[in-house]
Records
---
Amino acid sequence: LLRDFPMRARAAQLRRLNTELLPAAVRHVAADELKSIVTERLARSEIASAQRIAWLLVGLRFAPHRRSRQLFDLVGKSRARALRLGATLYAQADHAKNLSPLPAVVLARLIEKLAPHATPTYASGAGWVGDRERLRDLVRGLVDQLAASDDEEAASELDRLCRLSSVAEWRVVLDAALFEHVRAVRSTRFLH
């Protein structure tokens, strides 16, 4: 089914790919076979960019540095592609819970690409939950993953993100995450 998925999928087909087919494949298809399918799909030049983003996100599980470079090159400075990345990641990863094995640098780059298109604050009062709110929750989830990591690289990535002007609106959230990360690392390394 995945090998024969249309190269130029309609919106409904793409939604089904992201919400059902790829998450099921990650859970039930052998890693080597899924890696082979991802490699085959990404080798096709005629694949649409929205679908390429979906396959690259799955490919992050097998070659995080290589696939993240391809993903971030594809997204570039395009707002539309960054929003597509956020929507696809939200659909595939259930609020980024499945991304925990990714290196800190990849998580930080995802935050760097997505955070400028979301606001860290919650709206007051009643309202609808839309794409902007989902993107905010996704970015918060990625920041929380970096904060909870005991990896030394996470601290340097959080510090780098704090200094970026493109994510200045997220500065308070990132500072709090850096503080939490330092506290978590200190408590894991504390000896009685």
---
Amino acid sequence: ALAGVGQALSEGATAIGKPIAEREAIKEAEVDVAKAREEGTEIEMKSPLAWGGSTYNQVALKSYENGVNSDIKNALLDAQAAHPDDLNAYNAIVQEKIKGYFQNAPEEVQFRSRQFFDQANATVTREITAAAKAKADDQIAAGLITGAANAEDTISNLVRNGDLDAAREMQMQYILDLENGVKLGLLDAVKTQ
């Protein structure tokens, strides 16, 4: 009879204590992760056999990962804002900023956050590469337009001076440069006529 009472008390304590431990584990994990990340220390996982241990560990890992990923995303956006069309400068800043994010992170977090970094960085890298190409294309187009204006002046001067052969040769080069600019998509065909 006493064994049955002991069993009932044990089950009653478990029924009441376990849910409380689970709720507390969530709060405790979030606080411990924030403290560990702020201090640059590792987070200690709980025994999965302890009440709330598995919950604590799951919440701690996810919270740590979310924090690292948020820091990574902010670092990428800050570096992109500082160097929207310079991939080398962007990469230098990013590598410097993210160094410490993985340092004390649990191995699982490091793995998943590196995957997050690779995906997010690939997206930003594509955007910067596109911006760099657009900038380079604009510079080439400006050079072609300046060269065309100079060629027009030179052609006019050659015609005025009576050097028609040199003027025709210069005009052919002028037309070829403009056609190449249009073919490459750097110049507008309508505006170059």
